[in-house]
Write a structure and sequence with these properties.
It is a single chain. The chain is an alpha+beta fold. The chain has three helices and six strands. The chain has helices at residues 50-73, 110-123, 125-130; strands at residues 14-17, 22-26, 32-35, 81-91, 94-104, 135-138. A hairpin with a 2-residue loop joins strand 4 and strand 5 (94-104). Helix 1 crosses helix 2 (110-123). The radius of gyration is 17 Å and the shape is globular. This is Organic hydroperoxide resistance protein OhrB. Belongs to the OsmC/Ohr family. It comes from Streptomyces cyanogenus.
Length: 139
């Protein structure tokens, strides 16, 4: 069920200037970065790019979801890390992204870790937002 404006707990605001070859900053000044296309796409690669920012946000959000699921299950995920690999490529509509989420959970058997990661994928807001629109692979 979609959330309504009255359900919102926090709103982030960022403004971009000059698209992929410019600057992105948040309204509170905590994030202010130069963006540029990667060398693989003909850019200078001198700044970060939107895919890196998306990967950073997705991995942080997924790590939080993993922690929520672990607490509900009584599991210990201390020392765990989540890596998001975001690929950009051409598709029938122009361009699209693909994501690989990789979680490392020390001191946990592989089956339990896979189960927790799958459950985190069901509750992570980034996973929910992208479900059905992009391919997300869990590792």
């Amino acid at each position: 069920m979609p959330i309504t404006q009255s359900d919102v707990l926090y709103t982030a605001v960022a403004t971009a200037e000059h698209g992929r070859d410019g600057r992105v900053a948040t309204d509170d000044g905590r994030l202010d970065v130069v963006v540029s296309p990667p060398k693989e796409m003909g850019g200078s690669g001198s700044g970060t790019n939107p895919e890196q920012l998306f990967a950073a946000g997705y991995s942080a959000c997924f790590q939080g979801a993993l922690g929520v699921v672990a607490r509900q299950e009584g599991a210990d995920v201390s020392g765990s890390t989540v890596t998001a690999k975001v690929g950009l490529g051409k598709n029938d509509d122009g361009f699209g992204i693909i994501v690989e989420i990789s979680a490392s959970i020390p001191n946990m058997d592989a089956a339990t870790a896979r189960d927790l990661v799958a459950k985190a994928h069901q509750v992570c807001p980034y996973s929910k937002a992208t479900r059905g629109d992009i391919t997300v692979t869990l590792v």
